[in-house]
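Case study 2.
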Amino acid sequence: MIGHKLLGSGTEKVLVLHAWGLDHSAFESMYPALDAQMFTYAFMDYRGCGLSRDQSGSYSIDEIGSDAIELADYLKWQTFHIVGHSMGGMVLQWIAANHTNRVKSGVAITPAPACGFPTMDDATREVLCKIGDNAESLAMFFMRATGNRHNPTWARSIAQKSLSGTAHEAYAKYTVAWSKTSFVPKVVGLTTPIKVLVGDHDQSITVEAMQQTIMKWISNAELELLSNCGHYPMMEIPINLATIVQNYMIAHA
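Prediction:
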């Protein structure tokens, strides 16, 4: 079974999907603010990441989505909510499109859209594919993704944690997955309730980018701009994020 961490014992089930270069521990700052009596959370680690670091595979969006459904079946969850961050937000869309009747609601945190990033040039993609070779480059990536607003010591610590918890080949293969995968026809017209959260200092996943993609495709989506954070609100504003996420899921319980 794919690696995962369970938290809580509530009747509302929640599958939590992390970003590229991270694992389930990225959400640890939120744990004290999560309602463990109403919800049961399953924080899943993709192949090559965290608790699944030694599990190899194709490292694709389809594979993550299939592993997530297999995990839900293993846990005997017929229906559930999904919280997906960045690449995990893309997987959220994949699961909602392919297993619509099982998803009660979704919260997409600074999500990659179902079209990937078709305008990304090859040079940028190559840099990201090789970023696991250099701790300083990875730290700079985390700094830029949060608007160059935080202490560099924080970025270096996240980079080191990423490098120790992520298989080397996963950086390149998951970069290709979230940047080149596209399944837009499957999500157009989707009616699953999805809340899209964007950080006001995120320079890649912006309000405008979401309005041109997810908000156009999914009829029951709503968008909220988060203050004082970039691409990683679970680390930057964990209590506020936990409150927003849980309130949305309660509304769709």
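The two ends are 27 Å apart (CA to CA).
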